UniProtKB/TrEMBL annotation:
Example GO molecular function: metal ion binding
Reactions catalysed, as given in the entry: a ribonucleoside 5'-phosphate + H2O = a ribonucleoside + phosphate
Protein name: 5'-nucleotidase
Keyword Hydrolase attached: yes
Originating species: uncultured Coleofasciculus sp
Taxonomy of the source species: Bacteria, Bacillati, Cyanobacteriota, Cyanophyceae, Coleofasciculales
Entries under Pfam families matching the protein: SurE
Gene3D superfamilies in the cross-refs: Survival protein SurE-like phosphatase/nucleotidase
Domain Survival protein SurE-like phosphatase/nucleotidase, first and last residues per copy: 2-165
EC class (word): hydrolase
Family the entry assigns: Belongs to the SurE nucleotidase family.
InterPro entries cross-referenced by the UniProt entry: SurE, SurE-like_Pase/nucleotidase, SurE-like_sf
Enzyme Commission (EC) number: 3.1.3.5
Domain of life of the source: Bacteria
Amino acid sequence: MIILTNDDGIDAPGIRALHKAINGKGIIVAPKDHQSGCGHQVTTTQPIPLLRRSETEYTVGGTPADCTRLALTHICPDTTWVLSGINAGGNLGVDVYISGTVAAVREAAMHGIPGIAVSHWIRRPLIVDWDVAARCTAKVLADLMTRPIASGSFWNVNLPHLEPGAADPEIVFCEPSTKPLPVNYRVEGDDYYYVGEYAKRDRTPGTDVDVCFSGCIAVTQLRL
């Protein structure tokens, strides 16, 4: 059985696109609310509300990692894959340490279950076409889900943001960038506002950041 989750919340368009990419298969176990940027946070000292919305959908009052934990231990112990996304925004390079999307599949890998995190870089002012994202994701999943992957490893996929009508992008296997995100703040009195510009991050050739920003689908294999 395939579990689908995300960090944008169960009603986000990205998880619907992911569901479409696997032809409506699997069980959705996703956060009730937006959890973007929560990393691998888990809930251990308070109740986690779990609501069954349908035969194939569960909402969780917790984080993406909570969703994976509950899916594997209580909802679907016979899970064979955990898929997370499609995140509205890139999860490239060091983003994987911040990302709830990636944390959901990292948690699966901890339990010996393979996983794939899928994200869509947003190149403003372009608007995400979720039908295109679903089509590209379907192609990537068809490849990755037939490849052997070592225990403790998982896949991280980032879709580029192309102009409307552009040809479907090439899939490129690459290494993750290890360069930091741009860090800058606007100061107003005692308050600091993050103003780092995502698109201005380091683009070392051959890394996932450069591959995705160049218009290809960046695929990295990560290990615990």
